[in-house]
Specification:
The complex is a heterotetramer. Chain A is mainly alpha-helical. Chain A has a domain at 2-85 and 113-125: Four Helix Bundle (Hemerythrin (Met), subunit A) (Up-down Bundle), CATH 1.20.120. Chain A has helices at residues 2-22, 26-46, 50-75, 90-110, 125-135, 139-161. In chain A, helix 2 runs antiparallel to helix 3. Chain A is globular and about 50 Å long. Chain C contains 15 helices and no strands. Chain D has one domain (9-366): Cytochrome-c3 Hydrogenase, chain B, CATH 1.10.645.10. Chain D is 47% helix and 13% strand. In chain D, the strands form 3 sheets. Chain D has a 3-stranded antiparallel β-sheet with strand order 1-2-3. Chain D starts with 8 loop residues before the first strand and ends with a helix. The chains are: A mainly alpha, B alpha+beta, C mainly alpha, D alpha+beta. Chains in contact: A-C, B-C, B-D, C-D. Chain C binds chain D through residues 58, 61-64, 158-159, 162, 228-229, 231, 235-240, 306-315, and chain D through 9, 11, 17-19, 33, 120-131, 134, 190-191, 194, 196-197, 199-200, 347-352. Chain A: One of its GO terms (cellular component) is plasma membrane. Chain A: Its EC number is 7.1.1.-. Chain A: It catalyses: a quinone + NADH + 5 H(+)(in) = a quinol + NAD(+) + 4 H(+)(out). Chain A: InterPro entries: NADH_UbQ/plastoQ_OxRdtase_su6, Nuo/plastoQ_OxRdtase_6_NuoJ.
């Protein structure tokens, strides 16, 4: 049962990902991206990482709409059905992607600590354990990420609004 | 304080929510129109002397009448048509009528399916009972 | 009373009992299909009925009687509406992005239905008792932005596109105060599970502990469901109907279904997070209390809708980012402080 | 206004759009949600009234005047019949003059109520809309009781009015006037006092005093921009100089003031109506006028304060039964030009509010 569901959604995610790069319409590409993220979210659920799945939906799939807005805003000038032209250097892109995939796969496969838990965290749901980990063992990266995001937010505001001169 | 107006508005709507409603239940309960309402025309052909004043006063050429002379050299109404689709229901014709033959009536359900039905044959309509209008019309 | 309280749970147990192994795959599948159909029916009937109640409410507020033709005082009007919507022609304009145009309303309804899965209508009456209940709800409902944007973009209409953009701006902004307002409750109960949260409110509903959070949740929830005074997305007066402009017949009906389904889901979450869920004085069964409380929240939403006028789009953003967000952060801070003080004092008093 | 790299987005609002009050059409140029330019396109309701007047006798044209500003029918005909009376030198009986004032002011109240109603509807205030129209119904009932129709009255005649009012009219009018403060309180509570509505309207769509004067804006829109000008005071027509009333002026120049000044004017109209009700004499309601109206050769210009602005009637007579030329100066038509002047830089939502605050009636704009 789980295997069938896995293959359905894995194929869906990969097909949607290929749709992202091959679709000629940039808005379609963005929507394919949302589909791909949703497929990955289902895979997370199958790996008993339900918190991660919810985050994936909330953060990644939900934010794709922003990307669509950007895609529409950036491309309305021309014909939108031909807004995502093929790149002539796609061969290089494919090569680098394959290389990247191979490296990640190698790391994952050789790492002995990589395993899927047989069931969800038993103590108190995955959220509780994850929050404990985030606030104890990974405290510094967590805080650093928070600072980084704040800085990024402030930077974005400044870039968008501009700094008043003579102040 | 910000929000006072909002709360006041909420209070008003709540009051109205429980208050009575003013709907007129039209097809079941027919409205009681005042006697002067101008909503359609009625003709009493026996009173008409075919003077043609209504034809002349009408701003939109709604009325079309023909008459013929009888034995006493008196004009008798033969046909009386109103193109009610063009009528403004301004009431100028009824005011100009010297004998009060043409009157406004309160029959207001005048909608028809076809444009041709708006060409009223007033003599034929007068045979049917029309609710007559008030004293001045 | 106890039997009445557990009537639906008992029915489910009875159906499970029909199978040889009451936890086999086929038993689970049967129960799930039944539950799915039940949820779908609840959503459809609630949405249809709400669309009538909304009109009735609007008319009562303005001293009219509302739909009054079909059935006693017009209370069967929603059936006629459903039949009418089914019978209407499905028009799609030229040059629309046909696939996206057609899938957007279905997607919206599907998302709303997914959100219904975690709502506990009574003790043990929840379709999927997820540990992450409330988080799942938020995650799923965040996708509905995408569906509205799809509809807006695919319609090939300028008003629709403006509506889609507004949907993105508004719903993403209001998701943050919505999420943060719920955080206080989660901090107190230390769980995401909606049933456990309701269990924790047995003595006192959280609205008394978190009044500010409830207010923020209600405002952000109204904004998330795109109802006045925050109905920028389908602002009739400016952008005709926003993303729904080009839709007709059943597809438009699906949008309405999703809208009212969202209203029900949002109120249900408000009830389970703040108003004590199925707990209430004992003379009524728990699930009835839950439904009555949902109606209370819906009444407030309608009351607000038919009193207030629409906010401006930039005021809306200011309101979300400059008022609601700091307030909800302050609420989180105060809740944390409160919990700390509570933990500091309770052991000493001897609680 | 156009920033490099973004495309101007032109949206065609109207002639069939929910918020364009009839068949007004505007081509709106947007930068995102911000309006960069608006081109008003008028003429979808053009009926050629001025030409129609030339082919009808003086009396026959009276029913058509109601159809100019169909929300305030009486005031249009008042301007026309007074212009013809001025041309012919007809004296109108006292009672008819008072009845004319009563009907004109009732028409003004009805028009202003409808303006507030539609203004609130344009920012999604459905409930204020129905409260205002509920009270407007009472005025329309008064009209129907007397003149026979609710909106296109055809009540005024050259030389007077068509009939005297029925007996139940005066008590009904009195009770309406007595209920008015309560109504105004209600509108204030649900619409003007509402903070969201205020935030939508205050300091939106500023029409400065100089611009208003330069654009020849008249009526309440001008008075909301801080100019105390009202034809009823500046050049009293009929018997308006006998009444004691103020001309309200607001200095905010914004959309809120343009809505709010209507509420103040309703209160002033109430004062006039109360005085008219107190002073109205008995007597005939129509002067002795020749059956065939045939003014001597000449021309006349007469202006009245319509609810939508100053209305002027220019009538040229060549001595026949039909006017040689009729020219109508309508307030709303002139007021249209303030739309492109003040809307730039506001959001498309504000465009709707600003448009509502101008109080256009397309019957008057397109004639």
């Amino acid at each position: 049962m789980g295997t069938i569901v896995f293959f359905i959604f894995a194929i869906l995610a990969i097909a949607a990902a290929s749709g992202v790069v091959t679709s000629r319409n940039i808005v379609h590409s963005a929507f394919y991206l949302a589909l791909s993220f949703s497929g990955v979210a289902v895979l997370y659920v199958l790996m008993n990482a339900d918190f991660l799945a919810a985050v994936q939906l909330l953060v990644y799939t939900g934010a794709v709409s922003i990307m669509v807005v950007f895609a529409v805003m950036l491309t309305l000038r021309g014909e939108v059905s031909d807004s995502n032209p093929e790149n002539r250097k796609w061969g290089w892109g494919a090569f680098i992607s394959v290389l990247l995939f191979a490296v990640i796969a190698l790391v994952v496969l050789t790492n002995s600590d990589w395993r899927v838990l047989p069931s969800a965290w038993t103590s108190g749901g995955s959220a509780e354990d994850m929050s404990l980990l985030l606030l104890s063992q990974f405290m510094i990266p967590f805080e650093a990420a928070a600072v980084l995001l704040t800085v990024a937010l402030a930077g974005a505001v400044i870039l968008a609004k501009g700094v008043k001169e003579n102040q | 304080m910000f929000g006072n107006g909002l709360i006041k508005g909420l209070r008003i709507t709540l009051k109205r929510f429980y208050g009575p409603n003013l709907t007129e239940y039209y097809p079941e309960v027919k409205p009681n129109l005042p006697p002067r309402t101008r909503s359609s025309m009625a003709l009493e052909p026996e009173k008409c002397i075919s003077c043609g004043l209504c034809v002349n006063i009408c701003p939109n050429q709604v009325i079309n009448l023909t008459s013929e002379k009888d034995g006493n050299n008196k004009r008798v109404l033969k046909t009386y048509h109103m193109n009610i689709g063009r009528c403004l229901l301004c009431g100028l014709c009824t005011q100009s009528c010297p004998t009060g033959a043409l009157r406004l009536s309160q029959e207001f359900e005048n909608a028809v399916y076809h444009r041709e039905e708006l060409l009223w044959d007033m003599i034929a309509r007068s045979k049917r009972s029309n609710k007559p209008s008030g004293e001045e019309g | 009373m106890d039997a009445l309280n557990n009537v639906f749970v008992n029915i489910a147990a009875y159906i499970r009992g029909l199978f040889a192994d009451s936890h086999s795959l086929s038993a689970d599948l049967t129960i799930n299909i039944i539950v799915f159909l039940m949820l779908f029916l609840i959503m459809v009937v609630a949405a249809l009925f709400l669309s009538l109640v909304e009109r009735k409410f609007a008319h009562w507020v303005s001293q009219r009687s509302g739909p009054n033709r079909l059935g006693p005082h017009g209370w069967f009007q929603f059936i006629a509406d459903a039949v009418k919507m089914l019978g209407k022609e499905d028009i799609y304009p030229a040059n629309v992005d046909l696939f996206l145009f057609k899938i957007a309303p279905m997607m919206l309804v599907g998302i709303t239905l997914m959100a219904f899965g975690v709502i506990p209508f009574g003790k043990g009456m929840v379709a999927i008792n997820l540990d992450l209940g409330i988080f799942y709800f938020l995650a799923v409902s965040s996708i509905s932005t995408l569906a509205l944007l799809m509809a807006g973009w695919a319609s090939n209409n300028k008003f629709s596109l403006l509506g889609g953009f507004r949907a993105v701006a508004q719903m993403i902004s209001y998701e943050i105060p919505l999420l943060f307002s719920l955080l206080g409750v989660i901090m107190i109960t230390q769980t995401f599970n909606l049933s456990s949260i309701i269990e924790a409110q047995k003595t006192i509903p959280f609205i008394f502990l978190q009044p500010l959070a409830f207010l923020i949740y209600l405002i952000a929830g109204i904004a998330e469901t795109n109802r006045a005074p925050f109905d920028q997305v389908q602002g009739e007066q400016e952008i005709v109907a926003g993303p729904f402009t080009e839709y007709s017949g059943l597809r438009w009906g699906l949008f309405m279904l999703a809208e009212y389904g969202n209203v029900v889901a949002t109120s249900a979450i408000a009830v389970s997070m703040f108003l004590g869920g199925w707990y209430g004085p004992g003379f009524l069964p728990g699930w009835l209390w839950f439904i009555l409380k949902i109606w209370l929240v819906i009444f407030i939403m309608m009351w607000v809708r038919w009193t207030f006028v629409r906010m401006r789009v930039d005021h809306l953003m200011h309101f979300a980012w400059k008022i609601l967000l700091p307030l909800s952060l302050a609420n989180i801070f105060l809740t944390g402080l409160g919990i700390y003080i509570y933990q500091l004092f309770i052991p000493r008093i001897g609680g | 206004m156009i920033i490099d790299g973004t495309q101007e987005y032109s949206v065609n609002m109207g002639p069939q759009h929910p918020s364009t009050h009839g068949v007004f059409r505007m081509v709106v140029h947007l930068d995102g949600e911000v309006v960069t330019n608006v081109e008003p396109k008028i003429g979808y309701l053009h009926r050629g009234l001025e030409k129609m007047a030339e082919s009808r006798t003086y009396n026959q044209f009276v029913p058509y005047t109601d159809r100019l500003d169909y929300l305030a029918g009486p005031h249009n005909s008042l301007g026309y019949v007074q212009a013809v009376e001025k041309l012919m030198g007809i004296e109108v009986p006292e009672r008819a003059e008072y009845l004319r004032v009563i009907f004109a002011e009732l028409g003004r109240v009805a028009s202003h109520l409808f303006m507030i109603a539609s203004g609130s509807l344009d920012i999604c205030g459905w409930t204020p809309w129905s409260y205002c129209t509920r009270d407007r119904e009472r005025i329309l009932d008064l009209f129907e009781m007397t003149a026979g129709n609710r909106m296109t009255l055809n009540y005024f005649r050259i030389g007077g009015v068509s009939h005297d009012v029925p007996d139940e009219f005066m008590p009904a009018l009195k009770s309406f006037l007595d209920d008015m403060p309560e109504m105004i309180e209600e509108y204030y509570g649900i619409f003007f006092g509402n903070e969201i509505a205020q935030s939508r309207m205050k300091s939106v769509g500023i029409l400065p005093k100089e611009l208003a004067e330069n654009l020849l804006i008249t009526g309440a829109n001008l008075r909301a921009s801080g100019v105390q000008y009202d034809v009823r005071k500046a050049e009293p027509y009929g018997i308006y100089n006998r009444f004691n009333f103020n001309v309200p002026v607001l200095y905010g120049c914004d959309t809120y003031d343009r809505h709010f000044i209507r509420l103040l004017e309703i209160q002033e109209s109430r004062k006039i109506l109360q005085q008219a009700l107190r002073d109205i004499p008995e007597g005939p309601v129509v002067a002795k006028v020749p059956k065939v109206i045939k003014p001597q050769v000449g021309k006349v210009y007469h202006r009245v304060e319509n609810p939508k602005g100053e209305m002027g009637w220019y009538i040229v007579s060549n001595g026949t039964t039909k006017p040689a030329r009729v020219r109508i100066r309508t307030g709303a038509f002139v007021n249209v030009q303030m739309l492109p002047a003040i809307v730039t830089g506001w959001k498309i939502q504000d465009l709707v509010t600003i448009f509502a605050s101008m109080d256009l009636v397309l019957g008057e704009v397109d004639k």
